[in-house]
Amino acid sequence: MPPLADSVRRTFARIVDMILVGIVVWLLTWAFGVREYQVNGNHVEVGKSVGQSFIAAVLYIAYDTFMMTKYGQTLGKKWLDMRVANLDNGATPSVQTNLIRAFVLWVPFAFCCACIWTAICGGWSYFDRPYKQGLHDKAAKTVVVSTR
User: Fold this and answer.
1) Cα(110)–Cα(74) distance, rounded to whole angstroms?
2) Which of 2, 25, 92, 95 could form a disulfide with 72 if both were Cys (CB 3.0 to 4.6 A apart)?
3) pLDDT tens digits for the chain (148 residues)?
4) Domain RDD, which positions (predicted)?
């Protein structure tokens, strides 16, 4: 198996992916009139934030699952010379494995505590030994390896 990817590079790759998909989420929620909050005088409407969260979750999960299944890497990982591999054999993960990985990462991100969950889930790789796995990697039994 190739060497494990550096956690700092993983973080930058995740930021790139979050920005790319985030732009699409923003455009779709703007086009459909689904905003995080609407404030009108003394009335605050938060019901539409569920719609925005749903759109975000679906797009992030679809992006990660499609890219990882087809190419073994997202655009951020490709640009930073990394890919996701099965822990047991180094192969490109299956659709099911990628779905598990994406659900653990993106559902709490979209519906609960975006920045905090991302920091905990991905930040886990900074302290995890010996495989530098994030929580989503542990759930899916994957690792991120260098392609250099």
Assistant:
1) 19
2) 92
3) 789 999 999 999 999 999 999 999 889 888 877 765 555 666 656 666 777 788 888 999 999 999 999 999 999 999 999 999 999 999 999 999 999 999 999 888 777 777 788 888 889 999 999 999 999 999 999 999 999 8
4) 5-141
Q: Which residue reads 């991120």 in tokens?
A: 144
User: Taking the CB of residue 36, how many other CB atoms lie within 10 A of it?
Assistant: 11
Q: Where are the domains of the chain?
A: 7-146
Q: Are 50 and 38 in contact (CB under 8 A)?
A: no
Residue with tokens 């779709």: 28
pTM score over 0.90: no
Locus of tokens 């951020």: 76
How far apart CA 27 and CA 114 sit, in angstroms, is 19
Secondary structure class of 88 (helix, strand, coil):
coil
Rounded to a whole number of angstroms, the distance between the first and last alpha carbons of the chain is 12
